[in-house]
Amino acid sequence: MSINSQAQVYAYDSSLKMPTRDLYDTEVMNMTLRAYAETAARRSAYFKQYSRMAAEAYNEENWYDAIKYANSALSLFENGQQYYIRGYGYESLGYLKEAKKDYKRAKKLGYYDAAQALESVNNKIKAQKKQK
Q1: CA-CA distance, 46 to 62, in Å (whole number)?
Q2: What are the residues whose beta carbons fall under 8 Å from the beta carbon of 113, sequence distance 6 or more?
Q3: Cβ neighbours of residue 17 under 8 Å, at least 6 residues apart?
Q4: What are phi and psi of 8, to 5 degrees?
Q5: Which of 60, 70, 117, 132 has the fewest CB atoms lying closer than 10 Å?
Q6: 25-117 adopts what CATH topology?
Q7: pTM, 2 dp
């Protein structure tokens, strides 16, 4: 029976009192780049999935799920449409201050419908203040 072991010998850094690796070790660099690429691909796939689910919940007027899925999508990437969906969900549930924040962010990210929604929610907030 033979044991095949490949031990790598690293330079020893006497000031750190530990072995060091070659900074330009291409195998490690390639592994790292592959890991980053795989992570980015997974994040993108999850973002698309959560965005689709948020849009479906929005279309079905299921505001709690729309907010939940938009939150999940926004935890991966900033996106104007997702801020708009979450803001609309908040507005529909009566959380006008949260809706206003999301509409502002969606507008800043260039989502076209957010400007009109922001104006509408501002008018609702003013009307509430007048009633008090």
Answers
A1: 20
A2: 84, 106
A3: none
A4: -100, 135
A5: 132
A6: 1.25.40
A7: 0.78
Q: Is 110 exposed, middle or buried (0-12, 13-18, 19+ CB in 10 A)?
A: exposed
Q: Which amino acid is at 22?
A: D
Q: Which residues contact 36 (CB under 8 A, 6 or more apart)?
A: none
Asked whether the beta carbons of 88 and 96 are under 8 A apart, the reply is no
Give, for all 132 residues of the chain, the pLDDT tens digit.
Answer: 445 545 454 555 566 565 555 556 678 788 889 999 999 999 999 999 999 999 999 999 999 999 999 999 999 999 999 999 999 999 999 999 999 999 999 999 999 999 999 999 999 999 998 887
Q: Which residues of 9-48 are buried (b: 16+ CB within 10 A; e: fewer)?
A: eeeeeeeeeeeeeeeeeeeeeeeeeeeeeeeeeeeeeebe
